[in-house]
# Entry
Amino acid sequence: MLGLYLHIPFCGAICHYCNFNRGLLDDGLKARYVEALATEIRRAADGSAADTIYFGGGTPSLLTPEEVASLIAACRASFAVTPDAEVTLELNPETATPDYLAAIRAAGATRLSIGVQSFDDAELVRLGRVHSAERARQAVRQARAAGFDDLSLDLMMWLPGQSVAGWLANVEALIETRPDHASLYILEIYPNAPLRDEMARGGWSQAPDDDAAEMYLRGLDLLDGAGYEHYEISNVARPGHASRHNVKYWADGEWLAFGCGAHATRGGRRWHNIPGTTEYVSRIAAGRSVVADVRTLSPRTQAEEALFTGIRLCRGVSLADVQARYGIDAWGVYGPALSPFVDAGVVQYTPPVLRLTRQGMLLANEVCAVFV
Ligand code: SF4
# Structure
């Protein structure tokens, strides 16, 4: 079944590390954008079955409950969205209020992905986040009180000035809030990130690489001990709470994507929309296409993508499935390059399943380079 991704490119403030497609909130533009987004969804209508809707950003929780409801209605009018669909909305803690959370739940959101990033106020300030750790905890409590039984929290590791002990304290704080799902991302600092200047001014640096590896492994140990299943390199969940939408990205699924800069994959084709918000709105209003680029993927490319995304899943990727779908004998093609990783305990090959070991997840990029 399809996933439907809706991009909401507005934020109340810009974080110091952020490299996403987003801009500062402009209420007038947001209203026009939401209308354009609903139009793009309706134009793509073909009645296909979909079982997930994902509002990503940016800060989707800057949408009003009415806007959330209108976009979900556009999805339901255009696609056969299953009654039990997972409808996720990314939420920044500072936007949470009891009334807002109750209203978006009533509008049809079933799952929240809360951008906590850290439970240490000094770290949050360094990142340019506008909430405190206590505000994040409050948002979780308010979400539970509003009836959300599927909550995910994002945490970032390897922050400037963060020690292994500091990171583990963050993981413990996360466990104390009892989310159903958590995403643990390693901070990547892109070349022109304002965070680089902040780090130079503050004299902060990132811990050595070995410490980053220790943070990752010991953080996962804590989560294992608390009953979470590690199901993807950066994601853990209580049983039954893996993100149905995000698993489509890793398990060779298909999804449509709406909004500026959104990327879609379906039927052996991959395409993305123009990135500019204003340009997106004016093209939709003029009845023009918003697609910037379309690629038709060869079976070989599709097989490669199935392998390098599938291997991110802890259950691994079935080479028999890849062969059945794309006619590629993956072990015949990539086996010679993968064998040294198998010998080193980075990858396990138990035919037909190829998977990374947990230690091997630290070297996922090197393994994935074999496939591209
Ligand atoms: S809230 Fe998210 S999308 Fe917005 S600036 Fe911060 S990191 Fe970027």
